[in-house]
UniProtKB/TrEMBL annotation:
Transmembrane segments: none annotated. The gene is thiD. It comes from Marine Group I thaumarchaeote. Gene3D superfamilies: 3.40.1190.20, Class II aldolase/adducin N-terminal domain (3.40.225.10). CDD domains: HMPP_kinase. This is Bifunctional hydroxymethylpyrimidine kinase/phosphomethylpyrimidine kinase. Residues 10-250 form the Pyridoxamine kinase/Phosphomethylpyrimidine kinase domain. Its EC number is 2.7.1.49, 2.7.4.7. GO terms for cellular component: cytosol. Keywords: Kinase, Transferase.
């Protein structure tokens, strides 16, 4: 896949074109670049901007468009009206998804667009957008309206949609209870997507969000899935941000191995299953995926927090880390010792209806009785290992599901196992 990033050069490599190269490379995607302006900046201050000429901009576009198949385009810093007009004329004829990140200011205070060009931005850039991703401040400037009780996010997003963008995502519109929500307006649909907030000033998160968004769209994910994906990717990049210079931290993109991308893809799809919140237990859900031949839970990737219920929404709290899950990872480790091909698992709420469906399906199921747990097991805190071992002891065939009905003070639970996260997901869809 080839994605094109159009924007400014940032010598600190925290934002702009350099940041997008890091993001796309982490997805194993080839990153084409078109530079609209050279900025000088570091983690403390913003220096000069030198926009490129229309001539070289047009020539860059022609070079790239005539040669490569382009699967998606992200446009960020455009700086002035000349640049905006060249981009409009070259890009309007292309039929690929375009994400526009309407960057107006850098975190360190530099203006990334001339104020006299904002009207042209509205007129020529916004209509190109499959998705536009303003933050609250940018949405207010573009719509010329302050967000308040009367002027709701929906109203502001509708104003921007009227300017021609197909879908609007206003990022960080609302923060409460340690959560940060994005507002999404699609053609005939609007909703909030919430995630865990990290209060850390950083350089790069906005770029990471829009870059992850174009990747998801180019992979044919729908808008809701793409927003979730971008949100989780950005959460991770902020969580892992590093103090590389003397000023603010720069977001960090971990190289994604196959295990990581398969699991995060499946978690995104799991969170999108209709009414899935009903299958999340009180102790919440973890979804894990193991390296081949795991020696301990440290070889098993899981969510450092959990997949949690928040009303009717499901929120992925925390990021993917090896050793991130204790319980589900221990269950998987035990299963994997007997059946090495089983490398992924998830825990779901115990419900009679689910058990009935499991029994009707062709899935192989077994259970254990926590009330039979020997004292020494309880003392050693190895209940799960003992439970899974007893459930699979007599099975020659690979088991798909193991459950227990709980005991005093212990919540009953269903664990679904599979060879990989996608395989687990398919089994879940059969039984919920
Ligand atoms: O984060 C927005 C952004 C985009 N592009 C360039 C930037 C910045 C922020 O500093 O410098 C070139």
């Amino acid at each position: 896949m080839n994605l094109l990033s159009i924007g400014g050069s940032d010598p600190s490599s925290g934002a702009g074109i350099q940041s997008d190269i890091k993001t796309f490379s982490s997805f194993n995607v080839y990153c084409l670049t078109i530079i609209t302006a050279i900025t000088s900046q570091n983690t403390s201050s913003f220096g000069m901007i030198e926009p490129v000429s229309q001539k070289i901009l047009k020539n860059q576009l022609e070079s790239v468009i005539s040669d490569f198949k382009i699967d998606g385009i992200k446009i960020a810093m455009v700086y002035n009206s000349q640049i905006i007009k060249v981009l409009y004329h070259q890009l309007k004829k292309l039929k690929v998804p375009i994400v526009i990140d309407p960057v107006l200011k850098s975190t360190t205070g530099g203006s990334l667009i001339k104020s006299s060009s904002i009207e042209d931005f509205r007129k020529f850039m916004i209509p190109l957008a499959t998705v536009i991703t303003p933050n609250k401040f940018e949405a207010e400037i573009l719509s010329k309206t302050k967000i308040n009780a009367k002027n709701t996010p929906k109203k502001i997003a509708k104003i921007i949609q009227k300017m021609g963008a197909k879908n609007i995502v206003i990022t960080g519109i609302e923060t409460k209870n340690n959560q940060i929500s994005d507002f999404v307006l699609e053609k005939n649909n609007n909703y909030f997507i919430s995630g865990e907030k990290i209060s850390k000033i950083n350089h790069g998160s906005g770029c990471n969000y829009s870059a992850a968004m174009i990747f998801a769209l180019a992979k044919n994910k729908n808008i809701r899935e793409s927003v979730r994906f971008a949100k989780q990717f950005t959460y991770n990049s902020i969580k892992n941000s590093k103090n590389l210079g003397k000023g603010i931290a720069i977001t960090h993109i971990q190289k994604h191995d196959k295990i990581n991308s398969e699991l995060s893809d499946a978690i995104g799809q799991f969170a999108e299953i209709k009414n899935i919140c009903k299958n999340i237990p009180e102790c919440q859900t973890n979804f894990v995926y193991s390296k081949q031949t795991p020696k301990s839970t440290k070889d098993i990737l899981g969510i450092s927090g959990r997949i949690v219920k928040a009303g009717r929404q499901v929120i992925v709290a925390g990021n993917l880390t090896y050793g991130g899950s204790k319980h589900v990872a221990t269950a998987l480790l035990t299963m994997n010792k007997k059946f090495p091909q089983i490398r992924s698992a998830i825990n779901l709420k115990y419900q009679n209806a689910t058990i009935l469906k499991i029994k009707k399906s062709k899935l192989l199921v077994s259970s254990y009785d926590r009330s039979q747990e020997p004292k020494n097991v309880k003392l050693k805190n190895s209940t799960i290992e003992w439970g899974i071992k007893s459930a699979i002891k007599n099975s020659k065939k690979v088991l798909d599901v193991v459950y227990h009905k709980g005991s005093f003070g212990k919540e009953p639970m269903i664990i679904v196992f599979g060879e990989n996260p996608n395989n687990v997901l398919k089994k879940i869809l059969k039984i919920i």
